[in-house]
Amino acid sequence: MAFSRMLMGCTAPLALAGCAAGGLTNTAPVTPGQAAPISVTERQQGSEARTGILNEYNGAYTRGPTGYVTNVARRIAVQSGLSSDPGAFTVTVLDSSVDNAFATPGGYVYVTRGLLALMNDEAELAAVLGHEVGHVAARHSQKRQAAAQRNSIFGALGQVLAGAVLGDSGFGQLLGRAAGTGSQLATLGYSRSQESQADQLGVDYLNGAEYDTDALASMLTSLNSQQQLDQQISGDTRSVPAWASTHPQSGERIQAALAEARRIGGTEQPRNRDAYLSAIDGLLYGDNPDNGIIDGRDFLHPKLGIAFTIPQGAQMQNNAQAVTISGQNMQAQFGTGSYSGSLPNYIQQVLKSLGGSGATLSGGQVQRTTINGFPTAYAQTRASTQSGSVDVTIFAYEASKSRAYHFVVLTPAGQWLGTAQGMVQSFRKLSNADASKVKPRYVRIVTVKSGDTASSLAARMAFDDDQLQRFYVLNGIPQGATLHTGDKVKIVTY
């Protein structure tokens, strides 16, 4: 959360939705290399969306592999036919730890440094970005934007935030409005047939750019492994990470991508692993401490000197406008806003930010207390959404005469705070000693030496738990695989 912080899609994360049975596509075909050229209107759309996207993802990451990523993205993008000029594509590495990539109309292509850390070769990078460009080439975003405008009062981000925990209850729609994000174009979901078509186009683009066409399937496999690890670490098998929040994974989809690669050939073409690993050596991994970090169930912000703890089994994501928390029958956001010295007025301001033409909110009576030394005020009201009623609880904390923080907690009507009770009570000052322990982590490329094993290398990882599993997933290798002297692998260190 940057007070000074989803997987692929033209306007959606690398959609890991299941593909249609019997093949990769059941939509109108788009021949690789023959997509309609980028229009003036599309360039304007992409340009207008850019500011919101950069705000949502902490801006551009300008160090390390940015030039390398740009070259790969342009090499794959020109395979679409949107433009034969590589310079027509604006490529940005986003300074976010979330696993995400997407593209918008107008030739704008984005990938987070979090997703770069999970990739293991240049062909996988090309596969991810080819899938995204495929959505643009097929003009999928225009269809999804129309659907979102018809079906959602608050737009697409709410659908993403609702995730798989609360379905379409309207909880996420309210939270999406509270976040105030301007990047809705980058969070629209796609249909199965659109995802299938983007997969097919992505594989075809790989072949045209002379990359191993199996790369999309291997990238999907790594994403699937990361999802399983995230669920294992959080203890919540229902939880869905950012990249899959609108695009659930499917083994069938991986098999379809493999089948498409076999159909068109190109499975013996280069993957350029060494070049890729060299490019990402030293990449910032995970949260930037300047923007706060997620450490297990704790959110720690050393710069602001605050912390809180989420419920067991819940998950959180640290974005530019807010920290979003998803748990059992509960969703919440933690953030800040302008503060004039009155907590009741601050709460009303937050409630107002949640309102809209599709939701009716009536402010409840504001009550006061003190939590861990912070003057605190709270209020609850009930919101009527398209899918029924939900309880909305606001907890606001005065940190100084000019700074306040708050939780917005959404639960099923009648459940009060539910599992969030302990979370709102956990807001606290971060001690200087604890703040000093928060350090940035980086991806490091090491060469396997004689006697090295997965276990010995994993022991060097800057994590207190699940080191071996993290090592396997990070490197895209199966558990128990034998390492060979001279192999290059990724580890994460301080």
From TrEMBL:
The keyword Metal-binding is assigned to this record: yes
Entries under CDD domains matching the protein: LysM, M48C_Oma1-like
Organism: Stakelama flava
Domain LysM, chain residue ranges per copy: 444-491
Gene Ontology terms, MF aspect: metallopeptidase activity
Keywords for the protein's UniProt record, in alphabetical order: Hydrolase, Metal-binding, Metalloprotease, Protease, Signal, Zinc
Source taxon at top rank: Bacteria
Keyword Zinc in record: yes
Name of the protein in its database record: M48 family metalloprotease
Phylogenetic lineage: Bacteria, Pseudomonadati, Pseudomonadota, Alphaproteobacteria, Sphingomonadales
Signal peptide: 1-17
Cofactor names: Zn(2+)
EC number: 3.4.24.-
InterPro entries: LysM, Mito/Outer_Membr_Metalloprot, Peptidase_M48
Regions that span the bilayer: none
